[in-house]
Amino acid sequence: MPELQGLYDAVVNGDQKAAVRLTKEGLDAGVEPMELLSSYMIPAMDEVGRRFECEDYFVPELLLAARAMKGAMELIRPLLTASGAQPAGRVAIGTVKGDLHDIGKNLVASMLEGGGFDVLDLGADVAPEKFVDAVENKKVDLICLSALLTVTMPSMRTTIEALERAGVRDKVKVIVGGAPVTEQFAKDIRADGYGENANSAVALARKLVMAARAA
Ligand code: B1M
Fold it and tell me: Which of 59, 84, 150, 177 could make an SS bond with 116 (beta carbons 3.0 to 4.6 A apart)?
């Protein structure tokens, strides 16, 4: 069994090569992909955030850590995605306008794919009109909005307002998530739900899409 604490250290230290090597070793030794993510990689990103807050780390260190995380995620992502014969629903996902954080959003997208959803990933810094376009032209059942900054949370509200103005709000369910987002905030902006993490986002997506189909 590889020394998995090294994976935590590799992400904290922004050492992409080591992160990729240790992830591969862990997977080869039969460690579950979710175990690598939730016990080592996500706690490592939390530690990076903590160091940034107390000014031990600055933006370059955040970027290196993100690069290490993304390198390791490239090995994990295909294992989270499964090809269901019948899609559970069609989802458009994106990080809202002004916000460049995409690691959590990518993780939610992979888990949704793994849960059998057909996922249209709109990327990061996504303008409200792009979500409106996805409802009007791509026939999505569900929109997933991610935000990591308190200053970009209002873009979630703006996106929902844009859907309302375009007259398509009742054609789609909207769920929101990301570290600063709360259940109460989701209610305040008239979202249909809040996902605390990638797993709960998939469970909620399934529940909402099934309820909409049954209605
Ligand atoms: Co930024 N950053 N960052 N950053 N960054 C945070 C978010 C911060 C908390 C760090 C800190 O101060 N402790 C802080 C935000 C403070 C705040 O607003 N409350 C911060 C800041 C301030 C900034 C800048 C402003 C820094 C600067 O320039 N001075 C700047 C903003 C740029 C911008 O977006 N306009 C900035 C930039 C960056 C980088 C680009 C360098 C890099 C991002 C690279 C990338 O994503 N491609 C970065 C990083 C890496 C972080 C931290 C360290 C890690 C984020 C991460 O990837 N976490 C972060 C500190 C932290 O989170 N601890 C920080 C791992 C990821 C798996 O978790 O994204 O939370 P997360 O996703 C989770 C859940 O939240 C949830 O599921 C996921 C899995 O459980 N989830 C959903 C997410 N979306 C969901 C959607 C759902 C449901 C669940 O349904 C739709």
Answer: 84
